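Changelog-linked ticket: manganese (II) ion example.
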Amino acid sequence: MELQILVTNDDGIQSPALEALEVSLSGLGNVIVVAPDREMSATSHGITLNQPLRFHQLAPNRYSVQGTPADCVILASLRILHRKPDLVISGVNRGHNVGDDVAYSGTVAAAFEAALQGIPGIAVSAFSRENPDFIEAAQVVARIAARVLDDGLPTDVILNVNYPETWNGGIRLTRQGRRAGKTVLVENLDPRGREYFWLHEELHAQRSEPANEPMTDFAAVAAGFVSVCPLQIDRTAHAYSNHFVRWMELLDLDRSAEPR
Ligand code: MN
């Protein structure tokens, strides 16, 4: 049976990156695009629960969904494909998803939705250019996708791939960094004289951190590498379990929780 590769994004069905991925992935299996009908950037892992979910078929292998990126993965598995795809590729996002961006990214969340369903997921983002064609990034994705189709991914782990502004030809295994990107509130007046606020992200600066190996996702793309960062569903702070065992002893709520 031919492999089914689901492509989605959070930039919306009109993104030229979808076509670039359709071309680059065509040798690996049957590519089906299921993407939001409008831009859904920064919607993270939201799903639509309080209104109907609809989709429209635009071409034999192309569907738009009135919903979020995670909705797209769910709807594709349960209804459009009538089975789970063998691989989910989310992107190529216009703009990097590194460091703190991961918390907000709909692109990354779609790959996590795949992982929640037991499907290998890859999120892909590229430096935001004026008129991006995403062709080079999509070709790199196809190479990574071929490896993942051969080897699979560890359970509950996705790959967060970022393509740099100008690629130096190298690829780095990275860890999720922290960016000191600052969200600011821009205040203004609308034409009717009412004040409004617009969230705006000021240019990111890298927070100084210890020069550990592996390098951060942010540092890798800044140096011209393709960044491949494995991320996992489990957010438990395992490194701090001892700290919290002591903390729980001090908290000492067990006694007061006993029935009286
Ligand atoms: Mn986006």
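Closing comment: Example verified and attached. The helical segments are 16-25, 69-80, 106-116, 135-151, 217-222, 241-251, 254-257. The pocket of manganese (II) ion is lined by residues 10-11, 41, 93-94, 107 (CB under 6 Å).
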